[in-house]
Amino acid sequence: MVRLADDVAVQGARGGDPGSCHSSAPEVNPSGDLLTIGELARRAGVATSAVRYYEELGLLPAPARVSGQRRYPESAARLVAAILLYSDAGFTLAEQKALLASSKRESGEWSRLARRKLAELDEQIAKAQAAREAISHGLRCPHEDITQCPNFNAGVTARLAGQPLARSHQQLHDSRVPGA
Predict the structure, then answer these.
(1) DSSP 7-38
(2) Which CATH architecture has domain 1-105?
(3) Which has the higher per-residue pLDDT, 71 or 15?
(4) Torsion of CA 126, 130, 131, 133, to 10 degrees
């Protein structure tokens, strides 16, 4: 779980000069000033439109306004980094909103959401592994035209019967034609 304290800012994870305005890496502003949307976007390594979008979705709280311009506390960079981390882990923005809301309330909801995401990732991994196996077998097929391979056609038949790739690929193994 990511804790977002107001007194902690994100330091550049990719190195470089923390005072540089040219880096897209997160950095620290030691002065503790409020950040403009551009400064926040640069520190978090996102576009300003992404910051506005996160705000619109309720992932970022509405910032203070100074002369009509958004001004964010330095902790907002850490919150944007948490959003990016959740995205890297495969959470949708809607799921992230629920995660961020649940972290403030009950950890049971966070655990439920995280377990559901793990199950989704396991399913995606299984599908990707089945696809990889099927492609590897296709590369080893001795037929010049894969559509002429009896094993490939057994997989096609299984797929037409509504079986997913992993199952049709398994059926291919179960009914493998010798020498094909």
Answers:
(1) T-----TT-S-TT-SS--S----TT-PPBPHH
(2) Orthogonal Bundle (1.10)
(3) 71
(4) 140
